[in-house]
Structure prediction request, 137 residues.
Amino acid sequence: MKKLLLTAFAFASLSSQAAQLEFVSELSVQETQSIRENLSSEQLYAFDNAINNQAGMAILYKDRDYGNEYRIVIGNVSNFRDIGFNDTVSSIKVINSTGVILYRDRDFGGDYRIVLGQENNLVNIGFNDAASSLKFF
Ligand SMILES: [Ca+2]
Prediction:
């Protein structure tokens, strides 16, 4: 009987993991509008293109709860210095992709954390103001 319960529990936790893996965060209409208003025409083209083609995109925020300054990244970024955002990210939303791997060092080095969908406070996973590069998966 005990073994059966354990098996059921293992199954339940596996299914919830699978459900999480399919989770993709979405931008609200308001968020999308506010982001679009602040982009140059070149950035706007890339942003709309990513949305329409369902390309992996992430929005990196300086503060927790998706606050303050942000950067939009499309595709992997090997050095957050290039976008003026090194050791700065405190919350993140991943759009059109399952998740991202955040690395402590540039060029996808050092220790890392996986974010599925979104994380409103990187303190929760011990990675506040720490990320220096990022890969999509
Ligand atoms: Ca920060």
User: Anything to note?
Assistant: DSSP finds three helices and seven strands in the chain. Confidence is low (pLDDT under 50) at residues 1-23.
